[in-house]
Structure formats: structure tokens, C-alpha cells
UniProtKB/TrEMBL annotation:
Residues 1-10, 18-32 have a biased composition (Pro residues). Residues 1-75 are annotated as: Disordered. Keywords: Membrane, Transmembrane, Transmembrane helix. This is Uncharacterized protein. The chain crosses the membrane at residues 81-104. It comes from Petropleomorpha daqingensis.
Length: 105
């Protein structure tokens, strides 16, 4: 019986003092270097990959042929519905305020 009947218990041992928080562990990795605040323009960043081709790299477009008299349609008129509704709402509110002022006064 040269070995104990069961393995030693993991955990705090008698007389064991845990290291202070923030202190490097003995035999562990060295603490990280302090960080520094950097503002844009101070550090040269590596170039980012370009996924879209530049206009010089694009192939020239070929349009459909055979329709020499074709004219593209005229552009649609601007949608002014919101402007008209807003003007009507403002006029109704102002009229209501004037009528209410006259009735109270």
C-alpha cells in the first residue's frame, strides 16, 4: 500500500494563498501591454479588398440594336399627394383655431 486509497482532492489546500487579482500567475503568460487610444488618421490601415470592379475594369455595355426610332418614355410626374394633404390639414387646423377663437371670444 504505497499509494493512498483515493486521489488527492482538488481545491484550496491548507496553507495555500491564492494570487492577488491582476497579479501574473507564476509560470503563466505575461500580462498584456497597455492599450493606447488612436484617432483616425494616426495609424495607416492595411488596404481593404475591393469586391466591385472599378469603372475602368468593367466591360463596355452593348445595347439592343434594331430599334432606331425608339424613344424612352417621358419621366413620371412627381408625387405631390403628401404636399396636397399637408396643405389641406394645415388649412383645416387654422380654420378650426380661428373659429374656436371667435366662439370663445
Amino acid at each position: 500500500m504505497s499509494q493512498p486509497p483515493y486521489p488527492p482532492v482538488a481545491g484550496p489546500q491548507v496553507g495555500y494563498v491564492p494570487p492577488a487579482p491582476g497579479a501574473p500567475a507564476p509560470g503563466g503568460p505575461a500580462p498584456a501591454a497597455p492599450t493606447q487610444v488612436v484617432f483616425p488618421g494616426q495609424v495607416q490601415l492595411p488596404p481593404q479588398p475591393q469586391y466591385a470592379p472599378t469603372p475602368a475594369q468593367q466591360q463596355p455595355q452593348s445595347f439592343a440594336t434594331g430599334f432606331p426610332q425608339y424613344r424612352s418614355p417621358a419621366p413620371s410626374p412627381k408625387n405631390r399627394t403628401g404636399l396636397i394633404v399637408g396643405i389641406i390639414v394645415c388649412l383645416v387646423v387654422i380654420a378650426g383655431a380661428v373659429i374656436g377663437f371667435l366662439l370663445i371670444g
